Amino acid sequence: MPAYDFICNNCDQRFEVFLTFSEYGKKTVKCAFCGSKNVRRRMTKVRIARSEESRMESMADDFSGFEGLEEDPKAMGRMMRKMGKEMGEELPPEFDEVVDRLEKGQTPEEIEKEIPDLGGDAGDEE
Ligand SMILES: [Zn+2]
User: Fold this and answer.
1) Which of 10, 70, 106, 120 might form a disulfide with 36, Cβ 3.0–4.6 angstroms?
2) Where are the beta strands (DSSP E) in the chain?
3) Are both 76 and 99 inside the same structural domain?
């Protein structure tokens, strides 16, 4: 299961959460230190400048739209591709791969099985 880095907006602590790809964006993530739900995803290899934070928040809103999309991988693929463009930053190579597979109609579970290190720690330079 891939580990995702999160940062708590409440206490500024960094923590890792293990989520399957299909859980990501659906499961409520709580801070490991203070229990706050006010957390944000820390993007690896992407330095988040202050001006980018609001953009990340609007993307988090997009993620809430993922609910129910699980039965419609193509719609999820389109949404992820749109988000990738909005980020305009260096994306992990798996990102395109995942989007391509979603658009071909594969489910997140199938994709996770075929790309075992999806969302892993590769490239985290800190
Ligand atoms: Zn916290």
Assistant:
1) 10
2) 3-8, 14-18, 39-41
3) yes
* Count of residues making up the chain: 126
99 CA to centre of ligand 1 in angstroms: 32
pLDDT in tens, 23-43: 877 889 999 999 999 999 887
Task: Indicate whether 9 belongs to any domain.
Answer: yes
Residues 10, 55 within the same domain: no
Ligand 1 centroid to 87 CA: how many Å?
Answer: 25
Domain count, the chain: 2
Per-residue tokens: 46: 């992407």
What's the gap in Å between 51 CA and the centre of ligand 1?
22
DSSP letter, residue 41: E
> Please, what is the end-to-end C-alpha distance for the chain in angstroms?
21
Which residue shows structure tokens 């193509």?
74
Output the CA 40–ligand 1 centroid distance in Å: 11
pLDDT digits (tens, 9 = 90+) for 66-85: 555 556 777 778 877 787 77
